Write a sequence for this structure.
């Protein structure tokens, strides 16, 4: 009986688990400062991540603020696919294949922010269930280089 429970536990973990494989052909994520506030310490930042990874679509960007490895604050924003009209706004030649999310951050704290892009597979035709997809984590200060 204990072997049956062990096998069941292993199978259920693999069925529930989301994909995390890395692909070398993925578009690189990056960020761009859009505006500074009146305080000159807070920046409006656009974060660009690949729209499609492993057949899954970017949906949310989780923003985690750490202080000395302790999670202080966490929130998320929706990701929107960049449209052709948006490319002029960002002054980029080609943003085809990217989704964008926006945040405001104190520039002295940028090194403490971890971003996690979440992806979802499209619903299946047979049962309409949306499955979670891969996730990609980025340090904001590395995306700003």
């Amino acid at each position: 009986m204990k072997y049956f429970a062990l096998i069941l536990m292993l199978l259920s973990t693999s069925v529930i688990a989301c994909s995390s494989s890395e692909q070398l052909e993925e578009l690189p994520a990056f960020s761009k400062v859009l505006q500074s506030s009146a305080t000159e310490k807070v920046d409006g930042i656009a974060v660009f991540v690949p729209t499609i990874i492993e057949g899954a679509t970017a949906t949310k960007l989780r923003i985690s603020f750490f202080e000395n490895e302790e999670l202080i604050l966490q929130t998320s924003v929706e990701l929107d696919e960049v449209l052709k009209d948006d490319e002029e706004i960002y002054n980029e030649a080609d943003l085809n294949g990217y989704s964008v999310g926006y945040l405001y951050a104190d520039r002295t704290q940028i090194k403490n922010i971890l971003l996690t892009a979440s992806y979802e597979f499209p619903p299946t035709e047979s049962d309409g269930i949306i499955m979670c997809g891969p996730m990609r984590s980025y340090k904001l200060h590395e995306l700003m280089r």
About this structure: The first strand starts at residue 30 and ends at 36. Confidence is low (pLDDT under 50) at residues 1-24. The beta strands are 30-36, 42-50, 52-53, 56-67, 70-78, 80-81, 98-106, 113-120, 132-139.
